[in-house]
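Supplementary notes for students who missed Thursday's class. We covered one full example, reproduced here. Read the sequence, then the structure, then the short commentary at the end.
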Amino acid sequence: MNTTFPNPRRALAAASMLAAAALVALAGCASKPPMPSAEMAVAEASVQRANTSGTSDSAPAELQLAVSKLASAREAMAAKDNERARQLAEQADVDAQAAEL
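Structure (token representation):
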């Protein structure tokens, strides 16, 4: 009877590659930022609060910037670009607050 055993080096190399692939896959899943639901809600409320006739007259550029960034944040969320959506929502909130000053 001639029994052959797999090459231990090959088995170790295959196991190492499998472990490395698993780590890369897990790192990719762990690095995705969560949906910016809270930031979007704050930005929506700020833009809505700032969107008054007085603000439209006194700070139309700031208000338009806030509205535009909020729309871009919605698009980023739809595209599942959560980090970009969070950044835009935070910027929309700040712009809306500036429009109210």
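Commentary. The chain has a mean pLDDT of 82. The two ends are 90 Å apart (CA to CA). If anything here is unclear, bring it to office hours.
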